[in-house]
Amino acid sequence: MQFRDFQKQATRYDQVPGTSEKSMIVPLLGLAGEVGTLLSEYKKYLRDGQAHQQFGYAVGEELGDLLWYVATVATKFGLDLDEIARGNLEKIANRWPVSEAAGTYRLFDDNFPEHEQIPRRLRIIFGEEETPKGIRVTMTINGIAIGDALSDNAPEDDGYRFHDVFHLSYAAVLEWSPIMRSLLGVKRKSDPTVDDLEDGARAKIIEELVSQLVFTYARVHNFLDGVARLDYHLLKTIHSLVADRQVRIRSLAEWEMAILQGYEVWRSIREHVGGTVDVDLLGRRLSFDGPIVTN
Question: Cα–Cα distance between 124 and 274 in angstroms, integer?
């Protein structure tokens, strides 16, 4: 039986039809009540063990009642149960995707000239320098400075001056970072549309907004030290921010991987006040390669 067929038939047995306040609240309360009954059956099973021989039948019956109430609530809210089920599977697949088949991951700039591709391997050194305006963080590749020297731009030392690490993690794991494309001089200018929409100013603003949003979350969660999973609503908010960009095809799980890798490296960089970072786009990995060695 299809969900949609079940939903239509369930409507025939609605004892409080319509969409009045009473007709809406009754099935909602029914859902809560049936969950309680299901838990009660499991309680009996834990208490009585094999003596509760009707456990499987009872669970099936309660799940059927729950399904009826779910279908009825969906009908009253003008929703289609088939679409709800399909959307739920898509949501779960986005958050907990199965392993990718070999060769299915594609870089966004694969078909662009090499000089417009983010280098597949990068080795970047983060350091600090004293300036008339205070301590600033530098980022260099083979001794060549990349971007401007940065400060925390905050009343306290929170380490945000090292936040280019986050942009590198987006580049490594998601192959997306309009900011790093700009800093590395690899904007996709051969395609004016891509250059404007994907590598332009608005895309960079969105990336900075994502970085600040995650940092605000991370600072009240010990900067993600010991954290293995990120809040689902945080990841959904990020997805909504990039909904009209190429990176929208990356799953919530991939965003989580990028963020956690970025913060793992950021914590090491902050602890050692600089260091070397390896970026591997093909391996989708960002790693800390040790503090700066001084003679």
Answer: 10
What confidence tens digit (pLDDT) does each residue in 90-142 have? 999 888 887 655 456 789 999 999 999 999 999 999 998 877 777 889 999 99
- Give the H or E element holding residue 269: helix 252-272
CA 94 to chain centre: 9
Contacts made by residues 135-144, CB under 8 angstroms, sequence distance 24+:
135/161, 136/161, 137/161, 137/162, 137/164, 137/274, 139/164, 139/183
Please give the torsion angle defined by the CA atoms of residues 187, 189, 194 and 199, in that order, rounded to the nearest 10 degrees.
30
> 190-246 pLDDT, tens per residue?
999 999 999 999 999 999 999 999 999 999 999 999 999 999 999 999 999 999 999
Domains and CATH numbers, the chain: 3-95 (1.10.287.1080), 114-288 (no CATH)
Q: How many CA atoms lie within 13 A of 256 on its CB side?
A: 17
Distance CA 161, CA 150 (A): 5
Helix (H) or strand (E) holding 90: helix 81-95
pTM above 0.70, yes or no: yes
CA distance 198 to 194: 5
Query: How many residues are recorded in the chain?
Result: 295
